[in-house]
Amino acid sequence: MRIFTTHLAMSLVITVGLIALAPGCNKQPAHEVNISPPPMPADQPGQKPAKLKEIRPLDTGQAEPADPRHGQTPPTITEASSSIAKPATGTAGARPYHVRKGDTYWKIAAEQLGNGHRWKEIEKLNPGQERTKLKPGQVIKIPTK
C-alpha cells in the first residue's frame, strides 16, 4: 500500500507541475520565419517559360568507331572459343607431398605454405581426392610457395 501511495503522490506532483507550466507553452514565437520557396520565373506575371533547346542527332560521321571490328560480322562460337586461352589444369607450379598420419589439407597448408587458409589451393590441385580421406603414404600435389 505504501508503494501505491508513493506513486500516487509522485503522479500528483508531476500533474500539478505540468499544469503550472502549461500557460507558458502557448506563447507566440518572437519572430516568424518565411519558409515558402522563391517564385519561379514562370510564376511571375508577363513572363513566358524558357524554351528547351532543340535536340540534334549525334553526328557520327566525324569520329572513327572505337571497336576495330566495326562493320565486320561477329565471329562464330567455334572461332571465338578457339581464340580464348584455356585455363591451366593447375599442375604447373605444383610439387609432390607425402601425406603423414593426422594430416589435413589445413595442416599441410599451414606447415608447407605458411597459411592454413590456402588449403583450397591444395584441393584444386587434387581433384577427385576427398580431403577427409587422406591416408599416410599417399602422394598429393601442393603448390610451390
What would CATH call the architecture of the domain at 94-143? Answer: Roll
* Percent of residues in β-strands: 5-15%
Q: Kindly report how far apart the N and C termini lie.
A: 79 Å
CATH topology of the domain at 94-143, which one?
A: Membrane-bound Lytic Murein Transglycosylase D, Chain A
Per the principal axes of the C-alpha atoms, what is the gross shape? flat
Write structural notes for this entry:
- The protein is mainly alpha-helical and 145 residues long.
- It has a domain at 94-143: LysM domain (Membrane-bound Lytic Murein Transglycosylase D, Chain A), CATH 3.10.350.10.
- The chain contains four helices and two strands; from the N terminus they run ααβααβ.
- Mean pLDDT is 74; it is low at 85-90.
List the topology elements.
Blueprint: H1 2-21, H2 77-83, E1 94-98, H3 105-113, H4 119-125, E2 139-143
Antiparallel strand pairs: 1-2
Summary of the model, kept short:
This protein is mainly alpha-helical. The chain is built from four helices and two strands; from the N terminus they run ααβααβ. Strands 1-2 form a two-stranded antiparallel ribbon.
List keywords for this structure.
single chain, 145 residues, mainly alpha, Membrane-bound Lytic Murein Transglycosylase D, Chain A, two-stranded antiparallel sheet, 4 helices, 7% strand
